[in-house]
Amino acid sequence: MAPGGTQQYWPSYHKKMIDDFFASGYRLRYSGGMVPDLHQILLKGGGLFSYPATQDKPQGKLRKLFEVFPFAFVYTKAGGMAIDGYNDLLSLGYSGVHDTSPCFFGSSNEVETVKEVYAQHE
Predict the structure, then answer these.
(1) Residue extents of the structural domains in the chain
(2) How confident is the model at residue 1, as a pLDDT?
(3) What pLDDT does residue 92 have?
């Protein structure tokens, strides 16, 4: 588990989802950097990197063109999934070079859980 963003700004359902992952045996593997955390999840063969929409960053923090889309491509090619909470990240458009998006990268089981939780809070 590599949950990003400041916890005090997370939606309550996101915090509960992360807490539920930890309660079921997942462990924290958060370095504070997107690249090392995503690399570690790929090497380990599973897990979840999350950077949700937050109160202070409602459009997410990570930039689509430089961070989100390239890793979404890598994760989907590796057999995992990459979503914004609802939609496949590679299906999203952009209007500017610094557009951002919430993002979740990981193995299918974990990302499916994210989709289920987020679908209840659309």
Answers:
(1) 2-119
(2) 86
(3) 96
